[in-house]
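Narrative of activities, Objective 1.

The group set out to show that a structural description can be obtained from nothing but a protein's sequence at a throughput compatible with the screening campaign. Below is one input-output pair from the validation batch, recorded exactly as produced.
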Amino acid sequence: MRAMILAAGRGNRMRPLTDRVPKPLLPVGGKPLIQYHIERLAAAGVREVVINHAHLGEQIEAALGDGAQWGVTLHYSPEGEGRALETGGGIFKALPLLGPGPFLVVNADIWTDFPFMDLDLPEGDLAHLVLVANPPQHPAGDFALDGDRVRRDGEPRYTFSGIGLYRPELFTGCAPGAFPLAPLLRRAMDQGQAGGHLYRGDWFDIGTPQRLDELNRRLTGGQLGPCP
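Output recorded for this entry:
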């Protein structure tokens, strides 16, 4: 299975930190935020990883190289400075690099100990979403979980973690350009083709300098475990 790390966001809420450094390269616990994902993907047996980038993207390629030091091959999907394609458009552009089978996608701006090897996409489903308990900054959640089915409405509601397993067919009918992923996920939900589960392990949305500092304190203080 191949994986994609979404790393093209501008990181406006992280300014001024992201004025000169792309958000995925911000250091936390002694290494770039995106490196934790690469290490966990490698530990899960993923050997090919696609990374899209836009703002200061050349720094990402220079810092990570070809991925050999982690035992993976990194492929890059550049979107151009100031022209990020949003989540859906970025994945759609990278589909030729992701192959014909299901692929894993993870947002670069989260930290988690989620075991990527545990993901599975049953026949007939277009998406499997990992949901988490609603954090203080997002109390209303995103989607409802009904057994192993994800719904746009209902209770209980949880937050989409930014981790999902998708089939290329989820993007049928899409055209090149910038567009979000959420409408495609809702379409799959309406068709009964979106599954998911609740993850109760460690997960942090690194959306502000304050949350980055808190994660750094936990990592350096030994409150969170190291990557495998």
